[in-house]
Write a structure and sequence with these properties.
It is a single chain. It contains two helices and five strands. It has two domains: about 40 residues, no CATH class; about 70 residues, no CATH class. The two termini are about 25 Å apart.
Length: about 110
């Protein structure tokens, strides 16, 4: 069973820190190559969905739950963003995608 998990790429796991670093580096290279080679970007509504912690009311990055886990079902709720908020989120995503990918620090 894997012992190490990347906190940003939660489905990237490894048995050792070194293997984890190698896996993350490989993912980073693949993403960077894809961004550099792309002639267009397609954004889906899922990229602008907003979820809020039901107790704290703070925004969370996505509704939890993956790999068969309920991820704390009932602790988050979908917060329907306004058209303006969704437009700004999409514009920021496009702006970020157009910039050179910045590797995470080691």
């Amino acid at each position: 069973m894997p012992s190490y998990q990347d906190p940003y790429l939660r489905l990237v796991v490894a048995r050792t820190p070194g293997e984890l670093r190698e896996s993350v580096d490989a993912v980073d290279r693949a993403i960077e190559a894809g961004v550099r080679e792309a002639s267009a970007f397609l954004f889906t509504f899922g990229m602008t969905e907003v979820f809020r912690n039901a107790e704290s009311r703070k925004i969370v990055n996505q509704k939890p739950g993956y790999a068969g886990s309920d991820g704390g079902a009932g602790k988050v709720e979908r917060a329907a963003p306004s058209k303006r908020t969704s437009t700004i989120s999409a514009q920021l995503s496009v702006s970020c995608a157009r910039r050179s990918p910045v590797p995470r620090s080691s």
